[in-house]
């Protein structure tokens, strides 16, 4: 595998691989480059513009959440669709026509990138009838950061959990599970709410102020809210320490969300910081001055437990070891068979 080969080669210029939000390599001894690419296929199949836009927004946040935060400097993409002139009468029921998907996806990536001020410098496109039901939408971002900041940060017990950026709503709930489901004619109707709603202007402001906070050393660790929302971002950060989170402190787009929805929502443009107590006032004032919301929603502990509170009630208390490693691992046997290829039959040209 690529992972095994990379680990066996163990090149000194590979600074961080398979452990952070993006891979990091040495650039010139002073700066490092990080690169992240993801697919956003299912969301783009049911809502092409929004699915592609939030796809590029997600990889930009991965770059912001790599090391102690990198600056996104360019975007890239690869698109695979069915032919845009595919006969309408042959499009399966419940599936958008590939021409509509093509136009929406291209516009989604372009618009979100342009509003962030990040150029899309290269890309590729392929048309094949086999992509009629499920397009392939690769989105990627390249980032630049000082080499000494390319390591993943580490919080200390007592550091505060600070949620910054966009507010939390129901959009995107079950986005990760939807991405792994089989698409059917009912997918667009049933899973439309699983497609996140993007706001690139919020993400632009978050990106700018994060780099300023980084350069002032105001936080000890950072990650983004991607798949699983707070549950994965905070849960992963606190795996080696423990954490207490007060879900009723999370800023909401509207009222009526349950604490479960707040915890797993995949609303966009959100980052999570670990902030030492002596830096939190300066950090919050900085974010306010840049018109970016920042809220203390919890505290890292030293008991290796995940504790969630909502309106003074303890609604979750799990051991971190159980949370991350408690599920029995599935073991399966596979048999590899040598593929058989027919020898080509052709007349050799005369010399």
From TrEMBL:
This is PurM-like C-terminal domain-containing protein. InterPro entries: PRibForGlyAmidine_synth_PurL (IPR010074), PurM-like_C_dom (IPR010918), PurM-like_C_sf (IPR036676), PurM-like_N (IPR016188), PurM-like_N_sf (IPR036921). Residues 157-310 form the PurM-like C-terminal domain. Coiled coil: none annotated. GO terms for biological process: 'de novo' IMP biosynthetic process. Residues 20-144 form the PurM-like N-terminal domain. It holds the Pfam family AIRS_C. The keyword Methyltransferase does not apply. GO terms for molecular function: phosphoribosylformylglycinamidine synthase activity. Keywords: Cytoplasm.
């Amino acid at each position: 595998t690529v992972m095994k080969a990379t680990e066996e080669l163990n090149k000194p210029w590979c600074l961080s691989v398979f452990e952070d939000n993006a891979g990091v390599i040495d650039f010139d001894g002073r700066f490092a480059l990080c690169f992240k690419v993801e697919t956003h296929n299912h969301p783009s199949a049911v809502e092409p513009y929004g699915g592609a836009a939030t796809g590029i927004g997600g990889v930009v946040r991965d770059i912001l959440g790599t090391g102690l935060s990198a600056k996104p400097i360019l975007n890239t993409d690869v698109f695979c669709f069915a032919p845009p002139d595919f006969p309408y009468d042959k499009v399966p029921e419940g599936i958008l026509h590939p021409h509509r998907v093509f136009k929406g996806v291209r516009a989604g990536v372009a618009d979100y990138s342009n509003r962030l001020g990040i150029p899309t410098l290269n890309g590729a496109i392929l048309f094949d009838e086999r992509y009629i039901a499920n397009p392939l939408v690769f989105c990627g971002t390249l980032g630049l950061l000082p080499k000494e900041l390319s390591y993943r940060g580490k919080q200390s017990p007592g550091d505060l959990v600070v949620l910054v950026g966009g507010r939390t709503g129901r959009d995107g709930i079950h986005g990760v599970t939807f991405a792994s489901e089989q698409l059917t004619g009912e997918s667009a109707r049933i899973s439309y709410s699983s497609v996140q709603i993007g706001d690139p202007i919020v993400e632009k402001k978050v990106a700018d102020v994060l780099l300023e906070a980084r350069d002032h050393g105001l936080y000890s660790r950072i990650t983004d809210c991607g798949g699983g929302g707070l549950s994965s971002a905070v849960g992963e950060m606190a795996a080696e320490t423990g954490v207490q989170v007060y879900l009723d402190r999370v800023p909401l787009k509207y009222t009526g969300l349950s604490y479960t929805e707040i915890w797993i929502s995949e609303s966009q443009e959100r980052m999570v910081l670990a902030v030492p107590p002596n830096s939190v006032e300066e950090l919050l004032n900085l974010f306010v001055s840049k018109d970016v919301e920042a809220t203390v929603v919890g505290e890292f502990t030293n008991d290796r437990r995940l504790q969630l509170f909502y309106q003074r009630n303890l609604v979750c208390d799990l051991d971190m070891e159980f949370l991350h490693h408690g599920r029995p691992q599935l073991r399966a046997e596979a048999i590899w068979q040598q593929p058989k290829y027919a020898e080509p039959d052709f007349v050799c040209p005369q010399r």
